Structures are given as C-alpha cells and as structure tokens.
Amino acid sequence: ERYEMAIEILDYLPTMIKSLVYSLILMLLQIFTCSMVGYGFARFEFPLKKLMFACVVVMIVVPNHTIMLPQYMTFRSMELMRSQMPVYILTICGVGLRSGLYIYIFNQFFRGLPKEIEEAAFVDGAGTWYTYFRIMLINAMPAVITVTVFSLVWQYNDMFYAKLFQIPNAQLLSLQLSTLQSNIGANLKIMNVRIQKLYVNAGVVLTMLPILVIYLLLQKRFVEGVERSGIVG
Length: 233
What we know:
This protein is mainly alpha-helical. It contains 13 helices and no strands. The mean pLDDT is 88.
C-alpha cells in the first residue's frame, strides 16, 4: 500500500522519465565538453595552460555554494529562472556540476594513452577532429564509462541547482521526493511522523531503483575506468 501511494503522489513514472531524460542530456553534454577540454590539456601546448589547469583544480576544490549568488543573479537577469536552461548552459560551457572532476579524469586518461596512436592517424591523413572523435575518444571508453556513471548519479540526485534555479518539482524526482512527507500528511491526513516516514522510505527506494539498475549494468566497466583513470580514495 505504501509503495502504491508513493507511486501515486510522486507521479512516479512520468517524473522518473523526465528526470532520466534531464540527467542523460546533461551527461552527454558533460562527456562531450569535458572530454574535449581534458584532451586539449593532455595533448596540446598553449599560453597560460598551467594557469587554466589550475582553474580546473579550483573547480574541484571550491564548493558550488561560494558562487551561487552570482549564478542566481546572472540567470535571473536573463529571465531563465524556473527552467532547466541555466543548468544546460553551465554544463555546455564546462562549468556544470562536478565538471572540473570530469575534466581531470579525461586529462589523466588521455595522458596515459601512447602518442603513437595519434601519430599513426596523422600519417594516414586523419585530421585533428577525426582523430579525436574516431580514435582517441573510442580508446578512452573506460574514462567515458566512469564519467557516465558519476554524472548520471550526481545529476539525478542534484537538488542544489534545481532549487537555486527554481526548477518545478514536477520535472525532477528528487524534488518530488523532498516534498513527499508533507504531501502524505496533507493528502492522507496522516499526522504521525513515524508513519509518514514509512511512506517516505518507500519513495526513497523507488527513487534509487533506476540508478541502481544503471550501475549494475555498467559496474564492470566503471571499476575498470576508475582504475585506469588514476582516481584513488
């Protein structure tokens, strides 16, 4: 009964599909952007390279909360609040949720690949873009799988950007879950907090299921990617 009620109040299936589509789009954007940036740092020399890579490290160390006010003011002035567009813009620009970490992962992985692969491609007449998309990115599949799992989990569970940019609750399962307890009290007239939490626990299990399934499917490749990308701890 509690699972049935949690499914009904969460509007589970439509909201889960919206959440997964949102997370998948952000994941693809992060793989595209962060892999290119990581490849650029690993293979090319350009002015201020060390300073720029230091900025990537700062992105990993400094929490998002320190820049939440300027982000909020910027996107509010652009009249993009109450939508997912600010998150998409940040992600495609390489400064989305945990993008610094993903750039670091790709950088470490590309540095470990032998340069002879690219040299052979250039000798055969392949250009830089062809070499990157058809050869280097294919060889970096363990890193891609690692970033895929990390990005999916963090984007799916994220509430920081969702609340900062006032994304409607009906768009994300994590936001629906945060209001489940109050909705149980209002809709079912259950005032006992312990009983309310039983319904909330059912909602938590339902929310976790999609990510658990994805992780189980990608577990082997994920572990391999973590080992080969140099992440420890």
